[in-house]
Here is the input.
Amino acid sequence: MAETDDGPMTVEKTSEFKPAVVLIKKDLPRLDGVQCVKQIRRIHGTDVGLILMLSSPSDIWDGLDSGANGYALRETIAELLPFAIKHVNAGLGWIGPNIAKYLVQGKGLPLMLGAANRFAQSPIMGQLSDREQDVLLLLIEGSSNQKIAETLGLQVQTVKVHIKSILRKLKVNSRSEAISLVLKAGMR
Here is the structure.
């Protein structure tokens, strides 16, 4: 375990220690956390799980472009971090509860839904079946696999199959990367 004080040192220590997961503050000196995550992702690909620690839920918009696997506020309670690290280490995405609330109930929801609606018209969406599109839009709304299954009248296992297919077709590794792709495409 190592701790650093600035972005370039974080990139250097990641290469030196090759950790499974790195927590990176967004507001690092000399190289901010978003750029730091991008550099680590460029150097190490998906071999390193990255959690970007944000100052405010609205920082998520800058962070989504970074390639991080997880997003949390710096004030996230310590008991949640092992859970986040475990999920990111397993190749899954993780979004802290305050950021999730901002995205599904707060000021971020209209932005996210607007992006999703614009994305629905993009060529990328044409790669997905109608059912996969339904599943993806519910993912964007923050629905769990169980909630998606209930909403669409499917079994949870069927939802998981659709999500795997969506990830494969969109060439992403996690739900958060799929949502990020949708949001980036929809923001254009």
Observations:
- The chain has two domains: 7-95, 108-187.
